[in-house]
Amino acid sequence: RKVFTACVFTLFFSAPFFVSESHGADAYLYLTPEIISAEIGRAVTLSIKIHSGGQSVNAAEGTLRFDPGVFDDERIIKENSIITFWTKEPEVGADGTIVFGGGTTARFNGDAGTALSVVLAPKRNGIAQVGFSSGAILAADGRGTNIIVHMDGAVVEVGPRARVPASSGVTPGAPDAPRVVYGQPADTMQK
Fold first, then answer.
1. What pTM was estimated for this model as a whole?
2. 40-43 contacts: CB < 8 A, separation 24 or more?
C-alpha cells in the first residue's frame, strides 16, 4: 500500500512538469516576407526563420514546397544563418522542394533566427504559395524534444513587368515615374 501511495503521489505531482515541458513553447518555422509582390524574371528572396517560443533550441529541419512551374533559378543562401553545421545540406529538388536540416553548438532563443534564404525567380503571372510540408525545431534540452507548433508559409503575387517606353523620358523608379496598378489597362495608370 505504501508503494502504491508513493507512485500515485509521484505521478500526481510530476505530471504538470511533463506537460509544461512539452507544451510550454510556441516554436515555429516561418517565411518572411509573408506576402511579396514580384515581376516575371525578377528574383525574390524569402528567408526561413525560426521562432523558438521562449525556449533554447539547437536544431531545425524542414521541407519547403513551391510550384516549379511558377519559379526558375532557385538557389539557396546560407550566409547569416544561425545554423552552423548541416545534417541535411540544403538543396533544391526538381519537384519543387527545398530540404534542409542542421544545428548549432550554441543555443538559440529568439523570434527571428535565420535558418537560410531562398531565391526564386517567377516565370509566370499569378499567385503562388510557398509553404512547409514538414518541419521540426529541437529544444536544447538534452533530449532533442521537437517543440514545433506550426509552420507559416508565404504568398508571392506575380504580375507583369512594368514597362515604361524609352521615348517617355521617365526613369523607372524616379519620383515622376508612373505608378502601375496590376490588372488595370495602361491608360488608367496614375502618377
1. 0.72
2. 40/122, 40/123, 40/124, 40/125, 40/158, 40/159, 40/160, 40/161, 41/121, 41/122, 41/123, 41/161, 42/121, 42/122, 42/161, 43/73, 43/119, 43/120, 43/121
